[in-house]
């Protein structure tokens, strides 16, 4: 049962969204209600926090044998599912993967892959553990991968199991940091005392967002190149557009003219237009990615709350900014000499020719 604690000598560290999330033991999990056609039963199970996937497992400590059943739903009927152990780190590189897929004759097959880097995979490569037996079955749109693994290092207490990456980088960068940087630039510069602090905060936020976003973008391209049968054209094309626009913004920083330069007005139009485009496309693509990934609803709900908060803050600051600007204009007009008068005391007449 999933409510029992795991064996002390095997701790599965779950890699999700670039953080380690321990399996929840405090509430009944969906996996506890699942059963298998071969009547196989496992002592432990976990609902994984993404990809609508589940892991059932047993560990025989004296034999150093790990038995697993991994259940996930591919994005299309001819897709595949993969589960991996990483004995050295918590990333994709170094993962020792099992991949289950449907062959052209309709039968299911399982292959092993040693993912030493982000280079193209070699077919059915030797992995760190021995596969005692493996099989897969497809039913109701889900694929179940069965395997019994003999781990070569007895007494090893920590293993990372891997089934997703990429999304968190793009949510944080394109979906949160870029809009935040825009809010900083638009509303802080209204206050003279905030100059030039607002500028450095804005640049720091946007440059950091760009660096994180490029990492997420590159990871997405790599995942796409290794998933020939799975293509998300709209999500990919928006991602490429985001990269191009964000790169233009970086060059805009280098080409920024002085405030009194005659070309400054054109630079402002270019900079603001591209910046707002990045923010809008970034938010749209985050939702596209969430629709593809189909994580628990709490993740999508959490992002909606974050965007709603940013939007609410922007609306409040927009109203406040207009009040400040209008008051400032009114004060300027009240101190400006009236046209045709000398400080309001006498009318200025033209000199006689």
Automatic annotation (TrEMBL):
Pfam families: Cytochrom_B561, DUF568. GO terms for molecular function: metal ion binding. Gene3D superfamilies: 1.20.120.1770. The chain crosses the membrane at residues 163-185, 197-218, 238-255, 267-287, 302-326. Its main location: membrane. The keyword Nucleotide-binding does not apply. It is a multi-pass membrane protein. Keywords: Electron transport, Iron, Membrane, Metal-binding, Signal, Transmembrane, Transmembrane helix, Transport. One of its GO terms (cellular component) is membrane. Residues 1-26 form the signal peptide. Residues 131-326 form the Cytochrome b561 domain. It is found in: Membrane. Residues 51-181 form the DOMON domain. Its cofactor is heme b. InterPro entries: AIR12_DOMON (IPR045265), Cyt_b561/ferric_Rdtase_TM (IPR006593), DOMON_domain (IPR005018), UCP037471 (IPR017214). Heme b binds at residues 166, 202, 235, 271. The keyword Signal applies. May act as a catecholamine-responsive trans-membrane electron transporter. This is Cytochrome b561 and DOMON domain-containing protein. It comes from Salvia splendens (Scarlet sage). The lineage of its organism: Eukaryota, Viridiplantae, Streptophyta, Embryophyta, Tracheophyta.
């Amino acid at each position: 049962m999933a409510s029992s604690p795991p064996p002390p000598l095997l701790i599965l560290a779950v890699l999700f969204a670039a953080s380690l999330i321990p399996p929840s033991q405090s509430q009944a999990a969906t996996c506890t209600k699942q059963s298998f056609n071969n009547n196989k039963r496992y002592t432990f199970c976990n609902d994984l926090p993404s990809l609508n996937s589940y892991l059932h497992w047993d560990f025989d400590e004296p034999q150093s044998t790990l038995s697993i059943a991994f259940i996930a739903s591919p994005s299309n009927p001819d897709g595949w599912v993969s589960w991996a152990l990483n004995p050295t780190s918590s990333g994709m590189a170094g993962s020792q993967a099992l991949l289950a897929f449907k062959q052209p004759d309709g039968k299911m097959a399982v292959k092993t892959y040693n993912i030493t880097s982000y280079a193209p995979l070699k077919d059915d490569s030797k992995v760190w553990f021995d596969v005692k037996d493996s099989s897969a079955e497809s039913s109701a749109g889900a694929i179940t991968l069965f395997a019994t693994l003999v781990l070569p290092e007895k007494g090893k207490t920590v293993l990372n199991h891997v089934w997703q990456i990429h999304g968190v980088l793009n949510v944080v960068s394109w979906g949160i940091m870029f809009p935040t940087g825009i809010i900083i630039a638009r509303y802080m510069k209204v206050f003279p005392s905030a100059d030039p602090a607002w500028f450095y905060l804005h640049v720091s936020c946007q440059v950091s967002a760009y660096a994180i976003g490029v990492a997420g973008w590159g990871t997405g391209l790599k995942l796409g190149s290794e998933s020939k049968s799975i293509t998300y054209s709209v999500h990919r094309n928006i991602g490429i557009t985001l990269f191009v626009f964000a790169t233009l913004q970086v060059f805009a920083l280098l080409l920024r003219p002085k405030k009194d330069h005659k070309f400054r007005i054109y630079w402002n139009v270019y900079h603001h237009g591209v910046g707002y485009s990045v923010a809008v496309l970034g938010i749209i693509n985050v939702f596209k990615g969430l629709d593809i990934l189909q994580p628990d609803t709490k993740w999508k709900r959490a992002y909606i709350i974050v965007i709603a908060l940013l939007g609410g803050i922007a609306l409040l600051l927009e109203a406040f900014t207009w009040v400040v600007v209008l008051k400032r204009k009114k004060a300027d007009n009240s101190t400006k000499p009236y046209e045709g008068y000398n400080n309001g005391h006498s009318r200025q007449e033209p000199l006689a020719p």
